[in-house]
Known about the structure:
The chain is of the alpha+beta class. The protein has 3 helices and 8 strands; from the N terminus they run E-E-E-E-H-E-E-E-H-H-E. It has a single domain (2-133), classed as Nucleoside Triphosphate Pyrophosphohydrolase (Alpha-Beta Complex), CATH 3.90.79.10. The protein has helices at residues 39-51, 100-103, 113-120, and strands at 2-8, 11-17, 26-27, 30-31, 54-68, 71-84, 92-98, 130-133. Strands 1, 2, 3, 4, 5, 6, 7 and 8 form an 8-stranded mixed β-sheet that branches. A hairpin with a 2-residue loop joins strand 5 and strand 6. The protein is globular. The protein starts with a strand and ends with a strand. 29% of the residues are buried.
Amino acid sequence: MAAAVIERDGLILVAQRASGVHAGKWEFPGGKVEADETPAVALAREIEEEFGVAIEVGERLAEVEFLVAGRSYLLLAYRARHRQGEYRPTVHSRLAWLPPARLATLDLTPADVPVAMLLAAPERTAGIPIRVTL
Length: 134
């Protein structure tokens, strides 16, 4: 799985899940990486499908191993930059642009919590992707 940390004017995009596992929780948008895709290609595709916008994927920030219903997953979080389009959510109930310090106060999915904490205190791991196992 891959997640985009999309920044615009010093704010970070988060989206509230409308349904499914973790419905109502906030997350950094993204999705599954298909067998023939790199994480960057998957993120660009998922953001286009879910929001109708184009992004440019940058450096990897974090890797988070987590479990859902007893199944293990790996979330790869990447910095991303908005390129074009207007955000129109198709699978999320709400969007918010927040300063990094506010992200950790949200009811985030468990896998997104370490990413939010990293963004709130980037000086601790500047330039080094973190690896977390939940």
